[in-house]
Amino acid sequence: MSDCIFCKIVKNEIPCDLVFENEKVSAFLDVRPSAPGHTLVVPKEHHEDLLVTPDILLLESMRVIKKVAKAAMEATSAEGFNLIANTLPAAGQVVFHTHFHIIPRFSNDGLKHWPHKEVLKEEQQKIKDAMNKQLSAQPF
Ligand code: 5GP
Ligand code: ZN
To answer: Of all protein residues, whose CA lies closest to atom 24 belonging to ligand 1?
Structure first.
C-alpha cells in the first residue's frame, strides 16, 4: 500500500522510534502517546484491520506483544497495561493497517475505562446465532 503510513514505517521509508522487529512484526513508539511507553505492535504485511489479518500474523503479533508489554512496563515502572486494537472507524481506528496499542498503566493515572451498562436479554442469543452462522460457513 503506497500511501499507508505504517507500511512506510515498517519498510524504513519514514523514521520511527523502533523498539523491536523481526521478519513479520515491528514495534515502535506511538508518536502521540497516551502514557509513557505507549507502543504500537504492527504486522509488517499490509492488512486493513484485525478482522482481515491472517491468523498466523495475529499469533506472531501476540507473541511479540507479550515481550514488548513486559519491556514497556519494566522501562516505565508501570503496574499494568491495556492492549487495544481499535477496529473500524466507529471504534476510533484512524490508521488502516492492523496494529495493537500497548498502553502502560499506573495506579491513579487518570485514564478512564469504558462505562458499564446493563446486559440486554437478547444479546447472548444473537451473538451465539451470529457465531454459528460464521462457523457453519467456515469452521475453525
Ligand atoms: P488508531 O486510532 O488507528 O488505533 O491509532 C493510530 C495510532 O497511530 C495513533 O495513536 C497515532 O498517534 C499513531 N500514529 C499515527 N501516525 C503515526 C506515525 O507516523 N508514527 C507513529 N509512530 N505513530 C503514528
Ligand atoms: Zn500498510
So the answer is: 31
pLDDT, residue 114, reads 87
Domains of the chain: 5-112 (3.30.428.10)
Residues of the chain with pLDDT under 50: none
Which SS3 state, helix, strand or coil, does residue 101 take? strand
101 an active-site residue?
no
- Global model pTM greater than 0.90: yes
Q: Which residues surround ligand 2, an ion (CB under 5 A)?
A: 1, 4, 6-7, 46, 97
Number of Cβ within a 10 Å radius of residue 11: 11
Residues near ligand 1 (Cβ within 6 A):
5, 16, 28-32, 86, 92-95
Number of helices and strands (H, E) in the chain?
3, 5
Residue reference for cell 505504517: 6
